[in-house]
Design goal:
This protein is mainly beta. It has helices spanning about 55-60, 65-70, 205-210, 225-230, 265-270, and strands at about 5, 10-20, 30, 35, 40-50, 50-55, 80, 85-90, 100-105, 110-115, 120-125, 125-130, 135-145, 145-160, 160-165, 165-175, 195, 215-225, 250-255, 275-280, 295, 315, 320-325, 330-335, 345, 350, 355-360, 360-365, 370. It folds into 3 domains: about 10-45 and about 150-300, Phosphohistidine domain (Glucose Oxidase, domain 1); about 55-125, OB fold (Dihydrolipoamide Acetyltransferase, E2P), CATH 2.40.50; about 320-370, no CATH class. β25 (about 345) and β26 (about 350) form a beta hairpin.
Amino acid sequence: MSQAYSAGLTVTDSIVYRIKRILPLKGKVTVNKGDKVKSGDLVAETSLPGNVLPMNIANKLGCTPQQVASYMKVKAGDKLEKGMLLAEDKGMFGFGFFKSSVRSPIDGEVESVSPLTGQCMLREPRIPVQIKAFIDGIIVEVIPEEGVIVENKSAYIQGIFGICGETTGEIKVLVKDPSQKLTPDLITPDCAEKLVVGGSLTPYDTILKAKELGVRGIITGGIDDEDIKKILGYDIGVAITGHEDFGITILCTEGFGPIKMADKTFNLLKQFEGKEASMHGKTQIRAGVIRPEIIIPLDFKEEELVAPTPKDSLLLIGGLIRIIRQPGFGKIGKILSLPEVPINVESETKVRVLTAEVEGQTLTIPRANVELIEN
């Protein structure tokens, strides 16, 4: 009999964690290989070009494009301040009476002046981009002008779904057990700037209160997908998440609906309560899977940074699985059988499947649509 393997969420009290911190375009790396960094330390920086604003100088001065060059008071490459004189004609009959002028509406610089169109292109100030380490660790590699690779030894938790980007804070467990709902009354002013941990479900009202009180992140077993739609104002579909601008990062460890957080996950978070952690909500379920993560840095010696060989997870009858694609995304089931022969599915392709008991029903599910929940 052949064996079947599936990816599973990683939940561990010790892992060698490595992350790339890369600029969107070439810039300056501010650290060196071997440097120890904190999550908030700057590791690389650059600046993005500002927006371009066209100014039709010929139209504004009522002259021909060919005359514009003689009226310009600035040239390409000059720095600008808002209100600075860009161009001025010679006035009525060339004697300086009733002059027309054009002034800069922005701070920035002159990009170009065209003698053919009479247009002057202005560019707004460059936009600074700073990349921080995100985790406490050691710089193990510097990629010149692009970024760095940071490593550490951490307790580590992968979630199934999240929204919003990177954040850091102290872990604060607000429920007594992993089946307890995170209700609004549990969110108090001392939760500000913390990563708060709930149990089976975090409802909409709790999320709003947490945001209002300055909570940085919520870690929960389940969440209602309709609440996500309310928060964002749109349906997330299958696109990658993590770029939302809601103001609080949410990480769901189990799925949608009131699902008890796994004991192993809850106990690990309880173990490290009071510790600083990093987390993000970036999620992509389809090809090129990205998981939301919680990283809790541990004390370590540099020689301990040897990443273990990743192990495949073996699908076995009786094992617990989670559905990671629609239909049934986020639901948990128990494997009943692992048929050897591929079968035709709705897309008219032949795939290997398994049967599982999910919420009292027996479902046939493509193996690529599930992940193993490890005990």
